[in-house]
Each structure stands twice: as structure tokens, then as C-alpha cells.
Amino acid sequence: MITWINATTHPPLGQLMCASLAALEAGKHFLLPMRGQAMRQYTMPSDQDPPKTTHFGFREVAETEKERLVGQVFSNVASKYDIMNDAMSAGVHRLWKDRFIRQLAPPPGTKLLDVAGGTGDIAMRFLNYCRNAHHDHTAHVHLVDINPEMVNVGRQRFHNTVYDLKSQVDLSVGNAEDLADIPSDSKDAYTIAFGIRNCTHVDRVVREAYRVLKPGGRFMCLEFSRVENPLIAPLYDLYSFEVIPAIGQVIASDRESYQYLVESIRRFPSQDQFADIIRGAGFSVVGKGYENLTFGIAAIHSGFKL
Ligand SMILES: C[S@@+](CC[C@H](N)C(=O)[O-])C[C@H]1O[C@@H](n2cnc3c(N)ncnc32)[C@H](O)[C@@H]1O
């Protein structure tokens, strides 16, 4: 906070500066002489300052709380996550994910980092694509997710497949905002699907993606987005707010987590705003930087580290 005050209404400068320094030590207001008659009063952050807030669905929560609340949502839904995705989207999420991987079109030997990878839908599709398109057994995916329960469901899933958990797949628990265990310039591709809107600082996530990619590497994000079509938008809203939480209640006995899901979609930046964040992190994008899927219910964003 900055306020202008008149020097003539205040004690002499020496006393004033001492008082200001004392106040500064106590983490409160302090005064600085400015040109002419006026002084500026500054406020330093202190332990008593209210914490920074962010959104958790439509609620405003402390930034430090969001991660825990999101963690709770995905712990609650982990065991029903895959079946709920099919129920909510009538299987359309599968078509979006297939398209996402076809757009990535990974060449043989690609080293992919799949962040917020959850139960492994993208990781699995990536390996299937490499095997089917190129008979490639050298591609590798490292799935990172902040939620151990989601990672465990993913691990079980890979156990029942042809993919060798050691040579082609790694799974670990980690935060998209700080991928400290992943070296810089080490990955050919980075994917994040339906994960970034759950993160507290979207810009930090994209900057981390930029850091871990090799020069020439590709960032791709699949995320729910904005429906602008005036005929479709109200129907989509009705479906989102009335039907999805009810499906959550019936299938997962959890209305609240799915209420959060639809609210979090509305709080995520628009397609163009998110494309700006991607450019801002240093990525080069082609054209407007995204492709809408199903009227913009979801969108694929893409950027290159050149
Ligand atoms: C909707 S699921 C998407 C899972 C998977 N990518 C898919 O498309 O099916 C979102 C995932 O993001 C994870 N997540 C949320 N915040 C995260 C963060 N800060 N870092 C890493 N993962 C996060 C959650 O644990 C959850 O598994």
C-alpha cells in the first residue's frame, strides 16, 4: 500500500526516520521523504499480512491451501477416476487424447515427460503410438503427478501391459511447478493433460516445462477451455453444473469433487490468454497456438522451445 502524507503534519525528519526504522523492523508501515513537502508511506510484508489467495473452483483460498485441497479431490476420485471420465464425457475424452498424441506425432526414441499424468492415459497412448506407428521400443515416458494415489493406479495399470516398467516407463510423485528431479534440457517432449488448471501457478508450470525441454523440444497441453458458441454455451453450462456433479454423486459418491472440477474449468484462462502465457514462458507457437476440440470444450495448446 502506498499513501501520500504531508511532511508539515509530521515530526522532524530525524525522529521520523528512527520511528520508521523501528516500524520497519516490526514489519509495519514506514515513511520515506520524497521531493518537496510530501512523504511516502510504505507497508512491508510481515508475518501478520493476510496470505496471498487464489481460486479453488469458485472459492477464494490461501495459495498455500490450494495444493492440499486439490490433493484431497484427486485422492477421493483416484479409484473411480477412469470410469468417471468415460461417464462424464460419454467416452469423448478418449478421442481428444487420441488426437492429442497424433498431434504430438512422436518420432522413434522420443523421451516424453508427462506431467500431472494421473492414471497414465497419455503415457499409455504415447507408448502405443510409438509401437504401432514405428515399431519403436526405445521411446520412454516419465509420468509425474503430485498425487501418490493417482500414480499408484497408473502403476497398476502399466503392470498389466506389455510395457516394461523399467526400460520404457518411469512414474514418480512431483509438483509440476517445481520439477527439481528433472534435469534442464533433458526431454524431447512435455505433455500435460487436464492437469494444469489444478495447479496454483500456471505460469510457473509452463516455465518449468520450458526448462526441462531440450532445444527443439515440444510443449503440449490438453485442457478444458472456453465455449464461445452462443447456442452451445448455455447447454454446456447446464450439463456441467447440473449433470456432472450428479454423475459424481451416483458413481463415485462424491458430488463435491465434481463440482470443483466444473468450477475449476470456468476459472482457467481462455484459449488466447493461455497461449499468451505459453509465449511469455519463451515458447514459439505456430499461428494462434491452439486448436479447439468440440466447440472449445477442450483445447490443445502447443509450443516449441527453439
Ligand atoms: C484430471 S487429472 C488428469 C490425469 C491425466 N493427465 C489424464 O488426462 O487423465 C489431473 C491430475 O493433475 C494432478 N495434479 C494436480 N496438481 C498438480 C501439480 N501441482 N503437479 C502435478 N500434478 C498435479 C492430479 O493429482 C491429477 O492426477
Automatic annotation (TrEMBL):
Pfam family of the protein (one): Ubie_methyltran
GO terms under cellular component: extrinsic component of mitochondrial inner membrane
Biological pathway: Cofactor biosynthesis; ubiquinone biosynthesis
Top-level taxon in the UniProt lineage: Eukaryota
Known catalytic reactions: a 2-methoxy-6-(all-trans-polyprenyl)benzene-1,4-diol + S-adenosyl-L-methionine = a 5-methoxy-2-methyl-3-(all-trans-polyprenyl)benzene-1,4-diol + S-adenosyl-L-homocysteine + H(+)
EC number: 2.1.1.201
Main localization of the protein described in the UniProt heading: mitochondrion
GO biological process: methylation
Record's keyword terms, sorted: Membrane, Methyltransferase, Mitochondrion, Mitochondrion inner membrane, S-adenosyl-L-methionine, Transferase, Ubiquinone biosynthesis
Cross-referenced InterPro entries: SAM-dependent_MTases_sf, UbiE/COQ5_MeTrFase, UbiE/COQ5_MeTrFase_CS
Signal peptide: none
Listed GO MF terms: 2-methoxy-6-polyprenyl-1,4-benzoquinol methyltransferase activity
Binding site for S-adenosyl-L-methionine: 119, 145, 175-176
Membrane-topology annotation of the record: Peripheral membrane protein
Subcellular location: Mitochondrion inner membrane
Subunit structure: Component of a multi-subunit COQ enzyme complex, composed of at least COQ3, COQ4, COQ5, COQ6, COQ7 and COQ9. Interacts with PYURF; the interaction is direct, stabilizes COQ5 protein and associates PYURF with COQ enzyme complex.
Function comment: Methyltransferase required for the conversion of 2-polyprenyl-6-methoxy-1,4-benzoquinol (DDMQH2) to 2-polyprenyl-3-methyl-6-methoxy-1,4-benzoquinol (DMQH2).
Family assignment from sequence similarity: Belongs to the class I-like SAM-binding methyltransferase superfamily. MenG/UbiE family.
Xref: PANTHER family: 2-METHOXY-6-POLYPRENYL-1,4-BENZOQUINOL METHYLASE, MITOCHONDRIAL (PTHR43591:SF24), METHYLTRANSFERASE (PTHR43591)
NCBIfam families from the UniProt entry: MenG_MenH_UbiE
Protein name listed in UniProt: 2-methoxy-6-polyprenyl-1,4-benzoquinol methylase, mitochondrial
Gene: COQ5
